[in-house]
Design brief:
The complex is a heterodimer of chains A (about 300) and B (about 280).
Chain A lengths: L17 E2 L5 H4 L1 H28 L1 E4 L3 E4 L4 H42 L4 H9 L6 H11 L5 H8 L2 H7 L12 H25 L3 H9 L4 H12 L1 H17 L2 H6 L7 H12 L2 H26 L6
Antiparallel strand pairs in A: 2-3
Chain B lengths: L7 H6 L3 H8 L1 H22 L19 H4 L7 H32 E2 L3 H9 L6 H15 L5 H25 L3 H9 L4 H30 L2 H6 L6 H11 L3 H30 L1
Helix pairs in contact in B: 5-8, 5-10, 5-12, 8-10, 9-10
């Protein structure tokens, strides 16, 4: 490619943010005035509560006598010792749901991006349509779908799928409701759009000529997918898995509505400690552990997947 | 898995036509199955809005009836909670959109100290499980002795909607051509005129997207509201409570009505958006 003949493209004026250090004083304050109310809101109602939460987690006392900061770090150890099964379950359920979302969501995102053609808008509306009905109502609908003796359970039974899932410990006997399978199914359903949308966005950006080029170079469709399409969709995969895993790990709605007491996740424990037992230090310690665990996992994940520029 | 375009070689290997067809359309079939999985609960909600349940719970099909549709407010507190949810969603959207748009402009247009700190503060609420934010904000209110109710819910909703508005508006303002504003100034527009006649209309789709998202998030929020509502009942709180007390058909009626109204809005919006492009 010769660079001498082609005239240099006109210099695109960069949307360079104004460097206010060179501006007059009155103008220099503009961004701070713009930021002030919103940032104040976030500092007071988001950041400060986290500090309060931290101090609450090391308090001891009772509702009657009030709580005092006693640097009682043992609350953390007690919380882990007592609730580690729920922590483990949250990670397992959320991880499984995320994997299922990726597995189910990828073909759908691929379909919308490359194959839907003139149906694209309709399929897109159907993907976001579930959002239009309150998610609690939709989660309750799963109680009907998975009901004992309902058509879904009947089919799974006659195909002996439930025997296999029972053996795996996912279901119990001839029912799906109030088992891990129901909770994972609900979590997968609730967060699926959060996987499909970022996947679609990154797939849609791929130049279709890259597929043609791969084909011209004798790549089989499977190879094209493995070497071209999938790597290029990585930003969507990372964003989608984060948007699915983080809320799923803290969720307590699916476990409450579709599970039994044996499927309680860490969100259920935090909710009941805070709103029913009124043991604020334990609830605070648990949510801090959850936050720390998720932030650590997310940081490692982003480093490993090499998409740090994403955030 | 990625049989995007079946070439002659793969087609030749498939033993018969049926299998070949399956191979070629594998992705489409898988995608449509996922779509069915996504849409199925909506259909169930719709169908069961015409049910006449025997007991207190509307989980089993009994017989057809339009009772729910003719008397949508027939259950105590249901329509009151719906009204409250709408009211909170409107105010939260307004608050979050104004505050968020201001932050977005500051971030997109100016370079200043603490920029990365502000970016982190915007990002964190979106990367945190709701239950953590909910519990800590409720701890703050408890410690301050602030009574839970309408105002605490509104404060919480503005807080978590803010980040989404900033993200939506910032993306739009950043992709804006700065020459348009320069042109306006060259044509003797005052800074205020430039902002109102050029900048704001270009940023409008981003602001609208942020506002719509806020409305949807606020209206449908349960976890944060659950911790910060006290005894105030929003619509999601009502549905949650009814899962324990008994689910009236009217919940499905309202769910279905919401769905139809939203689909109608989207379709109308799509048609309206298409028209100017064609001319």
């Amino acid at each position: 490619m010769s660079t001498t003949e082609a005239p240099a493209p006109p210099a695109e004026p960069e949307a360079e943010p104004l460097d206010i250090r060179k501006a007059p004083t009155r103008k220099r304050l503009v961004p701070y005035w713009l930021l002030l109310p919103g940032i104040l809101w976030l500092l007071v109602f988001f950041a400060a509560p986290l500090v309060y939460q931290a101090s609450t987690s090391i308090q001891t006392g009772s509702l009657e006598d009030g709580f005092k900061v006693t640097w009682h770090f043992a609350t953390y150890l007690d919380a882990i010792a007592e609730y580690w099964p729920q922590f483990l379950r949250s990670v397992l359920y959320a991880g499984t749901a995320t994997a299922l979302c990726l597995l189910l969501g990828y073909p759908l995102a691929y379909l919308i991006a490359f194959k839907a053609g003139r149906w694209r808008n309709l399929v897109m509306i159907l993907v976001i349509a579930p959002f239009f009905t309150s998610f609690l109502i939709r989660t309750l609908a799963w109680k009907t779908i998975l009901a004992d003796g309902g058509p879904v359970v009947g089919v799974l039974n006659s195909l002996h799928v439930l025997d296999v899932t029972s053996w795996l410990g996912l279901t119990e006997g001839q029912r799906v409701l109030a088992t891990p399978l129901a909770v994972v199914c609900g979590l997968t359903y609730n967060f699926l759009p959060f996987m499909v949308l970022p996947l679609y966005t990154s797939l849609e950006r791929i130049d279709p000529r890259l597929h043609e080029a791969a084909g011209d170079l004798y790549a089989r469709p499977a190879t094209t997918f493995r070497r071209v399409t999938f790597p290029l969709s990585m930003p969507g995969v990372v964003a989608g898995t984060l948007l699915t895993f983080i809320p799923a790990a803290g969720d307590y709605i699916n476990a409450e509505l579709l599970g039994s007491t044996d499927q309680k996740m860490i969100g259920n424990v935090i909710q009941s400690q805070f709103l029913r037992v009124l043991d604020y230090p334990t609830a605070a310690a648990l949510s801090f552990i959850l936050m720390a665990a998720i932030l650590t996992m997310v940081t490692i994940y982003i480093r490993k997947s090499g998409t740090e520029d994403l955030v | 898995m990625a049989a995007s375009d079946t070439t002659a070689t793969t087609a030749g290997r498939a033993p018969n036509r049926g299998l070949r067809w399956l191979r070629r359309n594998l992705i489409t079939i898988a995608g449509l199955c996922t779509l069915a999985y996504l849409v199925l609960p909506n259909l169930v909600v719709m169908v069961f809005s015409f049910n006449k349940p025997n007991g207190r719970f509307n989980y089993q099909w009994q017989r057809f009836s339009t009772d729910g549709w003719t008397d949508p407010c027939g259950v105590a507190d249901l329509c009151g909670s719906l009204g409250l949810s709408l009211q909170i969603a409107v105010w939260a959207t307004l608050g979050a959109t104004v505050l968020g748009t201001m932050i977005a402009f500051a971030l997109a247009r100016y370079r200043f100290r603490a920029r990365s700190g502000v970016n982190t503060l915007i990002f964190l609420p979106m990367a945190m499980p709701e239950v953590v934010m909910a519990a800590s904000l409720a701890t703050l209110f408890l410690n301050m002795g602030i009574a839970f109710g309408f105002w605490t819910i509104l404060i919480a909703h503005i807080m978590f909607c803010l980040s989404f508005v900033v993200t939506a508006v910032k993306a739009r303002v950043m992709s804006m051509d700065p020459r348009l504003e320069q042109a306006a100034q060259d044509l003797y527009a005052s800074p205020a005129q430039t902002f109102l006649r050029v900048t704001l209309p270009i940023a409008a789709p981003g602001i609208a997207a942020g506002a719509l998202l806020s409305f949807a998030l606020s209206f449908d929020d349960f976890i944060i509201t659950n911790f910060n509502a006290g005894s105030t009942v929003t619509f999601p709180m009502f549905v949650w409570g009814s899962a324990q007390r008994g689910t009236p058909v009217q919940i499905n009626v309202i769910g279905t009505a919401m769905f139809l109204v939203a689909v109608l809005c989207v379709v109308v919006g799509q048609l309206a958006g298409k028209r100017p492009k064609r001319s």
